[in-house]
Amino acid sequence: MEIFLIRLLQFLLAISLLVLLHEGGHFFFSKLFGVRVEKFYLFFDVTVGKWTGKLFHFKPKTSDTEYGVGWLPLGGYCKIAGMIDESFDTEQMKQPEQPWEFRSKPAWQRLLIMIGGVLVNFLLALFIYSMILFHWGDTYVPLSSMSQGMEFNEEAKALGFQDGDVLLSTDRGELKKFGADMFRQISEAKTVTVLRNGEPVELSLPGDLNLLDMFKTEPIFARAYMPAVIDSVLPDMPAAQIGLQRGDSLLAIGDKSIGSFGQLTDELARLGDVLAAATTIQDSMAIRCVRLTYLRNGVADTLEVELTEDLKLGFVPKQLYEPITREYGFFESFPAGIKYGWHVLTSYVDDLKYVFTADGAKSLGGFGAIGSLFPSTWDWHRFWEMTAFLSIILAFMNILPIPALDGGHVLFLIYEMITRRKPSEKFMIRAEYVGFGIVILLMVVANLNDILRWLGYM
User: DSSP string spanning 206-238?
Assistant: First the structure.
């Protein structure tokens, strides 16, 4: 429960910040061009019966804008006078056009008002990435320094990889650090160079490996080799309760031999699948109680251990490599942050092609999936990384040419600027309904996937 609350608080804080600044972008340009903003809300104040749905609201005496917080935390909105938006306020549009309304302004001003939110989110992400690099730097273990190499799954071995290979480069460039970029580069490569037994070896690849398949298989395509050696034992956890110590090497769980920390996690994952199918408390306890073989000072011993409900032993594995940190000065951090943010955006756009596959559609996630990306303990570094990433995604998704999103309005404004003809209000209202329906459908699918994953059906 504590982990859930920590993640929930981080998610709500990040989303609140992003929504406020996104709507603030629309608000800024509206005020700049003399357009009246009737409401500025964090979260939606959906009416429930006689209740207006407003948790908090106020309207300054000298302002035309009502500020508030709604009860439904699915975003927020900035209600601009004289504009057809998700509020579907058609009565206002039947009144004579006023000089302080959105519809009375030149197309270029309306265009800036509409892209204001996207612009703020994109610039915010670049700024956050820059400040992350300035404050924390970029810390990682270079792949070329991982002298023990990688563990590969069967699909990777079929392509010629061998356990212990040190990843060096592909025909697309150097492989620098473990992560999504490494997998993406290998998936698109025609050749990859590895260090094997002290000698460079070049392997041929098809150049179109499915990135989703590389991640979703268990075990994944490649992972860094880590010995199943204990570095430290967590208090009040099973490893501590049975007396495991720093330096102990785990050899087996039950009859399954363990040669690395990765193989240990594989076996625990297999037990997790068995546990999920258990129908009685007795069956669950039988699965959680395992025989553990370990080595201490050259002597092997076997103990019985009861794993936690989520099948954890409770220890930190020995780290083989010391990470390096690339530090950035204040002014140096901005070009680096911009470059990194642009790379995040282009990689995300490139990976969208997988959404249109069956597995890609299943990988869509809603609020639960997004919330789970935040760490289980409060970590400001990770929090700001996730906030910057969500800011870029929010900017990109909003600029898509879908009616009801900012991009839909931008598309119609560009049409107007080219043809010098406004789409009719009747057309705009119908388009808004269609776009709103598409957005709701995507949200339903994404959040339904979350529920199915939680129930174990995906």
Answer: -S---HHHHHHSSS-SEEE---SBEEEE-TTSH
